[in-house]
Design brief:
The complex is a heterodimer of chains A (279) and B (243). Chain A has 279 residues and is of the alpha/beta class. Chain A is built from 10 helices and 14 strands. Chain B is globular. Classes of the chains: A alpha/beta (279), B mainly alpha (243).
Chain lengths: 279, 243
């Protein structure tokens, strides 16, 4: 269980990336979603003991991130955003090095590395220098690290950013194989919906919404999103696209009027909160 | 008490040092090109007279230039690859990480050192005593220069600056000190100024050990103090758990 108490991070220069956030999370997979610069990575780095908060604190299974970072590190794995492989090293070498850093013996690290790579169907590529691997495979090396570490809690910072749809699907499938609980950040709503039982929407360093995906979307029950390029009173905006929420049975009528109709996704939580999202 | 995870440091050194030699030999040739070019130039300009200085200095120059290049390396692993972040949340300490990187540079320098050893053997400059002395100097020099490099690498904010800083350091802190020429060519006060680079004290001590020049005793202390200081400094500047 992760509990945060007024967790705040203000960088030198005055930018407050995380602003007095308090929450409790205790689900198998939790997604922190938000735009670039919303404070997701800063929050994750503080929780995973990589970055000291300016004020407030958090606990992970009762261990304080300020007082007990070494104890916490024995139970967690954190895969940084845009982590990249060392070109000359192979996947199996990356994994072994990572597991030795976590205190495993060389033979145990070799064994666990092979098991994880097999589970992610990467055995064929295990001895290839990683600069010859595809983007998706490189990313899977890091998921394999998390899998092999067998930690109680895994933090994944934007694990699929920049990947093509097929690679993203492969990484999702790999993430689902991880044991223990997972906290991941993403700005892909479909990723959060696909993977997590609970989501936390953040913007400008604050939590906008927090809860079960189904509960959060309940307010849109029976609705669809109608988009047009002409603003009417009460419309929400996504860039230069204007959005209203209509009953499903009215969809045909709106299509005839030139509207584009879309299914409700987690994006709509941001839209109705007035947060500009990418069209 | 300082607890070391030597298993990690050795594994890191093996993978990062040895695998780079094996799979990227061009890096090794690149690291050798500068000291070998200087060796050639000194041989031509001094008509062979200063060749023994250039060979002995070549050992130091090679190790120093490889480890000074680690400014860019340390910054690259931290900023670009985010590999350092991976290790921050494991059980290793900054000392284990720095030691691993340092040892990997020693391994990486090996092919060059072997080449210099062959040249040194051919021109008959080695004795058992001088070989042991040279090995000790090289180990301490690596610790010192790696510590200095990683401290500066930790302060680098943008990767675009890292390669430039590393190149500047490599030239100014390796070629300017009396690495490839007799230290007695310089006034004493200049030597003390140049001692800001660990290569200077290493060169003075090596030239004395090989019987080329007299020993300058204060350099022994400067050499050791710098190694402890720079390695300690790196612990604080590697941006392990960031504030």
């Amino acid at each position: 269980m992760i509990e945060s108490f007024n967790l705040t991070k203000t960088y030198k220069g005055g930018l407050t990336a995380v602003n007095a956030i308090s929450f409790t999370i205790n689900k198998r997979i939790v997604s922190i979603i938000g735009r670039n610069g919303a404070g997701k990575t800063t929050l994750l780095r503080m929780l995973s003991t990589q970055l000291k908060p300016t004020s407030g604190t958090a606990t992970i299974d009762g261990l304080d991130i300020l007082r007990d970072p070494e104890k916490i590190r024995k139970h967690i794995v954190s895969i940084p955003q845009e982590a990249a492989t060392i070109g000359v090293l192979t996947p199996v070498e990356h994994l072994k090095l990572f597991l030795i850093a976590r205190g495993m013996s060389v033979s145990q690290a070799s064994q666990e590395s092979l098991i994880a790579l097999k589970e992610l169907e990467m055995l064929e590529a295990k001895d290839r220098p990683s600069d010859t691997l595809s983007g998706g495979m490189k990313r899977k090396v890091f998921v394999a690290m998390a899998l092999a570490a067998n930690a109680d809690l895994t933090f994944l910072d934007e694990p699929t950013t920049g990947l093509d749809p097929v690679s993203r699907f492969e990484v999702w499938s790999a993430i689902k194989n991880l044991r223990g609980n997972i906290v991941l950040t993403t700005h892909y709503m479909e990723e959060a919906q696909e993977l997590s039982q609970e989501v936390m929407l953040v913007d400008s360093g604050r939590i906008l919404e927090h809860g079960n995906v189904r509960d959060l979307l309940k307010r849109f029950e029976g609705k669809v999103r109608a988009e047009s390029f002409q603003k009417e009173d009460g419309d929400y905006s996504i860039g230069r696209t204007y959005v209203k929420y209509i009953d499903e049975e009215d969809a045909e009528r709106y299509i005839k009027m030139g509207y584009n109709i879309r299914r409700i996704t987690l994006d709509d939580l941001f839209v109705t909160r007035g947060v500009e999202i990418e069209p | 008490m300082l607890k070391l995870n030597l298993k990690f440091s050795l594994a890191f050194a093996w993978y990062y040092g040895f695998r780079t030699i094996k799979r990227g030999p061009a890096y090794v040739i690149a690291s050798l090109s500068s000291p070998l070019t200087l060796l050639f130039l000194i041989y031509i300009i001094s008509k062979g007279e200063l060749i023994k200085y250039a060979v002995v200095g070549g050992f130091l120059g090679l190790v120093a230039s490889v480890t000074f290049a680690s400014v860019a390396d340390a910054a690259f692993l931290r900023i670009q690859l985010r590999i350092q972040d991976l290790f921050v949340t494991s059980s290793i300490t900054p000392t284990d990480y720095i030691l691993g990187l340092t040892l990997s540079y020693i391994i990486f320098s090996m092919p060059g050192l072997v080449l210099y050893a062959i040249i040194g053997y051919l021109i008959h400059i080695f004795t058992i005593y001088s070989i042991l002395y040279m090995i000790s100097i090289l180990v301490v020099l690596t610790i010192s220069t790696a510590g200095l490099s990683m401290s500066i690498g930790g302060a680098v904010k943008h990767i675009r600056n890292a390669w430039g800083i590393s190149a500047i350091m490599s030239v100014f802190l390796t070629v300017l000190p009396p690495t490839f020429y007799p230290y007695t060519y310089l006034p004493k006060y200049i030597i003390y100024i140049l001692a800001i680079s660990p290569t200077t004290s290493a060169a003075v001590l090596t030239q004395a050990a090989f019987g080329f020049e007299p020993l300058m005793v204060p350099m022994i202390f400067i050499f050791i103090i710098e190694a402890v200081f720079f390695f300690g400094l790196a612990r604080f500047f590697t941006r392990w758990r960031e504030n």
